[in-house]
Design brief:
The complex is a heterotetramer, with 2 copies of chain A (about 400 residues) and 2 copies of chain B (about 375 residues).
Chain A (H helix, E strand, L loop, with lengths): L6 H17 L3 H4 L4 H14 L18 H12 L7 H18 L2 H13 L4 E4 L15 E5 L2 E12 L6 E7 L10 E7 L5 E6 L8 E12 L3 E2 L5 H16 L8 H10 L1 E2 L2 E2 L4 H29 L9 H22 L12 H4 L1 H12 L6 H12 L22
Chain B lengths: L6 H17 L2 H9 L6 H9 L18 H14 L5 H15 L2 H13 L4 E4 L15 E3 L2 E10 L6 E7 L6 E7 L5 E5 L9 E10 L1 E3 L5 H37 L1 E2 L2 E2 L4 H29 L5 H27 L10 H12 L5 H11 L6
Helix pairs in contact in B: 1-4, 4-7, 5-6, 5-7, 7-8, 7-9, 7-10, 8-9, 9-10, 9-11
C-alpha cells in the first residue's frame, strides 16, 4: 500500500505535466470561440499528441495507458484552467466508446472511435423515457423492421447534448409481446436523421442541460444495431456500468474546502463560524465522507489496474456524494444567513453563486443515472446479494405490465 | 386543556384554503417566479379585502381584533399555497413591530394602512453575509436621518415602510427606526435570489428621515422579542409548505408506476413519506404550542418559538427535497411545481435567522423549563 | 386552544392531588413487600376510592372519567414517588381490559373487569411466536376442537409477566388450511392451566422482562373464546390498537432533561459541555422531537376526548421516541468519555447507570410492539393510504406460505 | 500509487481469520462476557505464540519487525472476532508508548516482554467522567512515586505495566510515567461495564514507584501523538466489528422469512444493509489512508487518524445497532451474539476519546490540507 507515486508513475506525471504546461491554450487560441468550440479545440490538440482517451488502445486514438496513469493525467489536468471537455465529450467517451469497443465490429470501431476520442464527433445517449425512469427497461419507443431498416417512433428524455451531438446510442422496443427485458434492441443513430425533433428541458436550476427527443418514423439502418435483436438490455448494461463509474466522479458544488473557507469568512456570535464547535462537528463528518469517497475511488483504481471490471460498488460515490452535497449546500446558505437567499451569477460566486447553484443543481444529481433508491437497491442486490423483491412485471408480456394508466 | 382549534378557526382555515385554491393556483405563483412582477398584486388586493392583513390589529386601529390563533391558520394556508405575496414581512414583522413598540401616533398612522394593505411593511437588519452583530452596525442614525445599506431585505422594493435596526447617534447602542420609503433618501434595488416568487432588495439609505421605534438602545431586545413572535408565524407558514410537499409526493407516488406497480407501494418511498409525515406532525404539534404561547403571551414564548421554528425549518427542508426525489426526473424540471417549495423552504429558513441560531436560542431559553 | 386547565379541570386536578397526598403509601405500608405486592397494595387502595382505571365505566371499577381527566390524573400521580403499578398491570388494563370490554359477554365482563382494575388479578398477552414477529398473523400455535374444549399446542414468546399472571389473552391457529388471517381465533386462558410451561428470556440488558410460554395439550374451554372462530385477527386488532397507544407513552431512559443535566456537569475543553455549541445543537434538535411528541400526544387527547378512536398515528411516538433515545444514550456515554463504559447499578445512576441502562435497553423498544420498519409501514399504509406491497402470502392456505425452512 | 495490501498481508489476514475462527468462536467471547475470567487467557497465550503482539516491535527488542500494514490486518480480525483480549491496550497503547518515548533501558526491559505477551500493558489518563484536562490532573508524582486514581482503565486489572499521565512534581506540567503494577502501591479494582467481555478497572496508586517516560512536561503532546497512532489501529478493530455486524445481518436477512418472503427482500432491510455497507466501505477506505500515514510516518497522520477514527466510530455504532434491529426480537436476546458488537462498539468509542473530540482534532488538523 502506497499513496505516493512509484518512480515510473512520477516519471509519467512529469511527462504529462510538462506537455500540459507547454500546450495549455492561451487567450489567442480561444478568443471568440463558444464553449463547445473551445472543448473541441483542446480535445483535438490533446488527441494529436495522444493525450485523449489515454486508456484506449493506440489504434483507436488512445495510448494504452494504465488506470493509474489515467488518474495521474486527470490530476494534472485538474490543476490547470483548461476548457471543459468532459461536459461535451464525457458521455460519448465514457459510455458510447466502451459500448462500441465491446459490441461494434472492427470496421465500425475504426470508423468511429478515433473521432470520438479527438472530439471530432460528439455522441449522446438516449435511454430514458417518460414512462421508464427508474424502471429503465420499461421503455416504449418502438422500432419496427422495414427491409434493411428499422422505423422508430416514440420519445426519449433526459438526453444531454442531443442538440449538438452527431450520433446517439439508444435502446428500442422491438418486441412488446415478450417480457420487458427481452424485447429490447440496441442501436446507434445519426442525430441529424429526418424525423428527430429535439426540445430542451428547463431544469429547476434554470439551466437546460437535457432534452426531450421525439422520433417520428425515423429510419435506422440495421447495420447500426449493436448486439442481436432482443439483446438490447444486455448491451445496455455495458453502457450503464460505465455511466455509474463516471457520474460517481463528483460534480463540483459545495465541498469541504469551499464550506470551510466560507466558515472562515462569516461570523457566528461575533467570531468566525469555523471556531463554532457545531460547525466544526458538521464539517468533520462531511470531511470523513469526502475523504472516504476519495480513497474508495483510489481502491477501486487498484482493483481496475489489476484488470477487474468496474462493479456495482461504484454506486456508492453518487449515493453518498449527492446527499452530502445537498446538505452541505443547504448548510452553507444557512451560514450566509439572510443574504444566503441572494443568487446572482454575476456577483461574488462565493457568497451569491456557488452554494445556491449547488443547492438548486443537486436534486438532479440525486436522480440522474439512477436515483438514490435505485443505487441502494443495486448495492443491496448486486453487492450484498440480497434477494430481489417480488416482481409484478416478470414473466408476462411487456404490453400486459400494469402501468396505472 | 384543549389542544385544537375551535370551529370558527376551522372555518377560517376552510375559507382560506378554498380562496387560495381558487386565486392562488400554481399558475399565479409561476407568473411571479418567471415574470417581472415583484409580487402578485391582484391577489394581494383580494387578500387585503378579505381582511387577512388586519387579523390581529386591534379594531381601534382599523383591524379585526382577532387572535393569533386565527392568524396562524391563515399563515399555514399561505405557506401551503406558496403565495407570492409580501404577507409575512408586512404582517409578521412590520405590523408586529409597530404593535409592540410603536408610539400612539405611529400606531395611528401606520396600523390602519397596514390593516388595509395600502401600506406594505418590512424589517431590515442584515448588512451582509453571516450573522448580524447588533453591536457593530454600519447603518447609523444622525439627527433623525438614517444612512447605510441593508441587504436582502424581504419585499424591500415593495414596502412603504421599513423597520430598520441601526446604531443610534447617541452611542446608546442599536435601536429600531421607522423609515417611510417615500423619502427621497431611500432607494431599493431588487436582487436576484433563490426564490424569485418573493421580492428581495438591497435598500440604500442616504440621510433618509427616520423615527425612533420603541426606546433608544433597546433595538437588540426589541428585535429578539419581535423575531420570537415572527418565528411562530413563519413556522406555521413553513409547516403549510411542508404539508403541500407531502401531499404532492403522496399523490404522485400513487399514480406513478414502475416495475409494474405504483411507486408508493415500494418501502423506499413509503418510508420516505412516513418520515415526512412524522416530521410534519411533530412540527405541527410544536407550532400549536408556539401559537398558544404567542396568543397568551406566555412566558414560555421564547422556548416555544424556537422549538416551533427549528421543527418547521427541518420539516420543510426534508419535505421539499424529498418531494422532488419522489417525483424523480420530472420533479427536477422547471415545468413541475416541486421547485416552488424547495426554493421557498430555503428562503424562509434564512429569513429570520437560520436553524442554528434558533437551536442556540432554544437551549438558552430551556433553563429551567423542562419538557 | 388552551394548554392550561379549564376551571373544571383545575377542580378535578385538585381533587386528585388531594386524594393522592392523603393516601400516598408510607414505609409502614410497604416494608417487606415485593414490587408486585407493593403494586397490588397501591392499586387496591386506588380501586377502593375509584381511582383505578378511571376511564372505565363505574360498573367495572372505573369512574367514567374523560380522556383529559385521565391525563390530569396521570400527571398528578407522576409527581409522587409511588409503587410502580404499570409494569405489572399495564398490559392487562391497557390491552386485555379494552378487548374484554369490546368482545366479552356481560357476565364475563362483570366477572373479570373489576378485579383487573383493582390489581386483584394480573393478565398477560400471548401473541408473538418465534416464527411470527413482525408478521404477527403468521403464528402457528394450534388449537384443535375437542368437545367443548380446544386443545392447544405450540410456543409463544415475548410474554411479559407470564410467570406472575393469572390470565392471558392469546390468538391461536384454528385452521391452517385457509389464508393466514382467516384461520385465527382469539381466547383467554388460565395461566395456571396444566401443560403451560414458562421460561424467562434474558435480554441483552441483563433483565428478563419476557418469557417463552410453551403449550402442551393445554385445554381451553370454548366459553373462553372472544369473537367467532376464524375472527381472531379482527379481535386482535382491538388489542393491538391499544398496545400502540400505551407503548408510545415513553419509557424513561435518556431524555432532554437528564442529558442536559449531564452536559452541565461534565467538561469539554475545560468548560461545561453545555456551553459547547455542538452539544447545544444536538440537544436542541432532540428537544424539538421530545416536545413535538409531547404536544402530539396532547393533540391526540383532544381528539380522543371528542370520542375519536386511537388511530395509527400513535405509531409516531414509539418510532421517533426509540430512535431518539438510542442516539441520546449513545451521545451521553460519549460525553462521559472513558468512564462512560462503566455500568454499575450500585453506583451513581447519573454517571454509571442511567444512560448505560438506556443504551442497552433501547434496542428492545425499537422492536417490541412493532419494529421501526413496521411502524413506518403502518404510517404509510394506514395514515397516508399508500398501496400495500405485493403479498406473497395472500389468498393461499397458511400451510403453503413460504417460510424458508 | 497502490491502494491495496500485498499478497503477504492478505496471507496474514487469511491466517488470522481462520485462526480466530477456530480459537475465538462466539463461545469464547461469551465465556468471558458471562464468567469471572478477566480475559480469555488460553487464547491470549496462543495469540502471543503466533507473534501478533510482537508484530511491529523491532527485532532487536524481540519483535518481528513487521510494518503497521501487517498490524492493521490483525487488528481488523481482532475486531471481527470481538476478541476478549487485552490486545489493544497492550499493543496499540503501551507498546507504542514505549517505542515512541521510552529510553533504551525501558525499551530493553519492556518490549521483549510485551512482544512475548508475558507483560500486558495499558495506558491510564482519565480521572472521572468527561474529558481529561491535562492541565489539572489530580494524579501527581513526587520523588519518583506516583499517587492518585485513574478511572475505567482498560485491562487495569490484568496489566503488568501502566503508562500513566500525571502531573510532574517540578511544576513542569503533565508527563507520562511508567508504573510496574507489581509495586505494592498499585491496587486495581475491576469495575462493572457495558462490555464485560473486556476488563476495566479503577487503578489506585499510593506512592507507587514510577519512571518518567519521555521528556518531562511533554505528557500532553506525547499522549496526543500516541492517541493518533492508536486511533488508526483501533479504527481497524472497529471496522472489523462493523463488518461482522453487516455479515450477520445479511445472513439473517436471507434466512428469516416474514410475510412469505425473506426479510432481506424488503427494501426497508435492503436499504438499511446498503447503508451499513456504504458506511463500512467509506470507513475502510479512510482506515487504509490512516494505515498508510501511520506506516510511513506521514505528516498527514493527525488528519488521517482523526478521519479514520470518526469514520469507524460512526460505522460501528450504526452497524451494531442496526444488526440487532435486523434480527428483530431475537437480536435483543442474551442468547444471540448481536449484543457482543453493540457493547464493544460503545466501549471502543469512548476508549481513546469520543467521536466529538476527534471531529475537533480533524478540523484542527485539516489546515491547510484540502481533500
Amino acid at each position: 500500500m502506497d499513496f505516493e507515486d512509484s518512480k515510473a508513475e512520477a516519471a509519467f506525471r512529469l511527462e504529462a505535466r510538462t506537455w500540459l504546461e507547454n500546450n495549455i491554450p492561451d487567450d489567442n487560441d480561444l478568443s471568440g470561440l463558444s464553449n463547445l468550440q473551445r472543448a473541441k479545440f483542446w480535445q483535438a490538440k490533446k488527441a494529436a499528441a495522444r493525450w485523449a482517451c489515454i486508456r484506449w488502445p493506440e489504434a483507436y486514438g488512445g495510448r494504452d495507458a494504465t488506470a493509474i496513469e489515467h488518474v495521474i493525467w486527470q490530476q494534472e489536468e485538474a490543476k490547470l484552467d483548461l476548457p471543459n471537455t468532459s461536459s461535451f465529450f464525457g458521455i460519448g467517451q465514457g459510455m458510447a466508446g466502451p459500448t462500441l469497443m465491446a459490441w461494434a465490429n472492427e470496421e465500425d470501431k475504426a470508423r468511429f472511435l478515433p473521432d470520438l476520442a479527438s472530439g471530432e464527433t460528439v455522441w449522446c445517449q438516449l435511454f430514458s423515457e417518460p414512462a421508464g425512469g427508474s424502471d429503465l427497461a420499461a421503455l416504449r419507443t418502438k422500432a419496427v423492421k422495414d427491409g434493411d431498416d428499422w422505423i422508430v417512433n416514440g420519445q426519449k428524455i433526459w438526453t444531454s447534448g442531443a442538440h449538438y451531438s452527431d450520433w446517439g446510442i439508444l435502446v428500442l422496443r422491438t418486441d412488446p409481446t415478450v417480457a420487458k427485458h427481452k424485447g429490447l434492441t440496441y442501436f446507434y443513430v445519426d442525430m441529424k436523421s429526418e424525423g428527430i425533433d429535439i426540445k430542451p428541458i428547463k431544469q429547476i436550476s434554470g439551466a437546460s442541460d437535457f432534452n426531450e427527443v421525439y422520433f417520428t418514423n425515423v429510419r435506422i439502418p440495421d447495420s447500426q444495431r449493436l448486439g442481436d435483436v432482443g439483446q438490447g438490455w444486455h448491451v445496455a448494461l455495458t453502457t450503464l456500468m460505465n455511466e455509474r463509474a463516471s457520474i460517481g466522479a463528483g460534480s463540483g458544488g459545495a465541498d469541504f474546502k469551499s464550506l470551510k473557507r466560507l466558515a472562515q469568512q462569516v461570523n457566528i456570535d461575533g467570531k468566525p463560524a469555523i471556531e463554532d464547535s457545531a460547525v466544526r462537528a458538521k464539517l468533520a463528518s462531511w470531511y470523513v465522507e469526502e475523504a472516504g469517497l476519495k480513497y474508495t475511488s483510489y481502491r477501486t483504481l487498484s482493483a481496475l489496474s489489476k484488470g477487474e471490471l468496474p462493479g456495482p460498488e461504484n454506486s456508492i460515490g453518487k449515493l453518498v456524494g449527492a446527499r452530502k452535497t445537498q446538505d452541505m449546500s443547504s448548510f452553507a446558505i444557512d451560514l450566509l444567513e439572510q443574504q444566503g437567499v441572494q443568487w446572482d451569477a454575476e456577483l461574488d460566486a462565493e457568497y451569491n453563486g456557488l452554494f445556491q447553484l449547488s443547492y438548486m443543481g443537486i436534486p438532479g444529481l440525486r436522480i440522474a443515472g439512477g436515483t438514490d433508491e435505485i443505487m441502494a437497491n443495486i448495492i443491496a442486490e448486486r453487492v450484498l446479494e440480497l434477494p430481489q423483491e417480488p416482481r409484478m412485471d416478470k414473466g408476462i408480456p411487456f404490453s400486459e405490465v400494469p402501468t396505472g394508466s | 386543556m384543549n389542544f385544537e382549534f375551535d370551529d370558527d378557526q376551522h372555518l377560517i382555515r376552510d375559507q382560506a384554503r378554498s380562496f387560495l385554491g381558487e386565486h392562488c393556483s400554481s399558475s399565479v405563483v409561476r407568473e411571479v417566479l418567471e415574470g417581472d412582477a415583484l409580487y402578485a398584486e391582484q391577489l394581494w388586493n383580494k387578500v387585503c379585502e378579505m381582511g387577512w392583513t388586519a387579523t390581529v390589529i386591534p379594531e381601534e386601529y382599523g383591524g379585526l381584533g382577532l387572535s393569533y390563533l386565527e392568524l396562524v391558520v391563515i399563515a399555514e394556508e399561505m405557506g401551503r399555497a406558496c403565495a407570492p405575496l409580501p404577507f409575512g414581512s408586512s404582517v409578521y414583522l412590520a405590523t408586529e413591530a409597530i404593535m409592540a413598540a410603536g408610539s400612539e401616533s405611529q400606531k395611528k398612522k401606520w396600523l390602519p394602512l397596514l390593516a388595509e394593505g395600502k401600506a406594505i411593511g418590512t424589517l431590515a437588519y442584515a448588512e451582509g453575509p453571516g450573522e448580524t452583530d447588533a453591536a457593530s452596525l454600519s447603518t447609523t442614525v444622525s439627527k433623525d436621518t438614517l444612512t447605510g445599506k441593508k441587504c436582502a431585505v424581504a419585499n424591500g422594493n415593495i414596502a412603504s415602510l421599513i423597520c430598520v435596526l441601526a446604531a443610534s447617534d447617541s452611542g446608546e447602542g442599536a435601536s429600531l427606526y421607522l423609515v417611510d420609503t417615500s423619502d427621497s433618501g431611500v432607494t431599493a434595488e431588487t436582487i436576484r435570489t433563490l426564490d424569485p416568487s418573493l421580492n428581495y432588495a438591497d435598500v440604500h439609505f442616504a440621510d433618509a428621515s427616520c423615527e425612533l421605534l420603541g426606546e433608544i438602545g433597546q433595538g437588540r431586545d426589541l428585535l429578539n422579542a419581535l423575531l420570537d413572535r415572527a418565528a411562530v408565524l413563519y413556522a406555521w407558514e413553513q409547516l403549510g409548505g411542508a404539508e403541500t410537499c407531502l401531499e404532492m409526493a403522496k399523490n404522485y407516488a400513487v399514480q406513478r408506476y414502475a416495475f409494474g406497480r405504483p411507486i408508493g407501494s415500494f418501502q423506499a418511498i413509503k418510508h420516505k413519506l412516513a418520515e415526512m409525515y412524522v416530521k410534519n406532525t411533530l412540527a405541527r404539534s410544536n407550532a400549536y404550542f408556539g401559537a398558544w404561547a404567542l396568543n397568551s403571551d406566555a412566558e414560555e414564548l421564547p422556548l416555544a418559538a424556537a422549538t416551533a421554528r427549528v421543527g418547521s425549518c427541518q420539516a420543510y427542508y426534508y419535505a421539499s427535497k424529498e418531494n422532488i426525489q419522489t417525483h424523480g426526473g420530472m420533479g427536477y424540471t422547471w415545468e413541475f411545481d416541486c421547485q416552488f417549495f424547495y426554493r421557498r423552504s430555503k428562503a424562509l429558513a434564512v429569513l429570520i435567522g437560520s436553524e442554528r441560531q434558533w437551536q442556540e436560542k432554544l437551549i438558552s431559553a430551556s433553563d429551567p423549563v423542562a419538557v
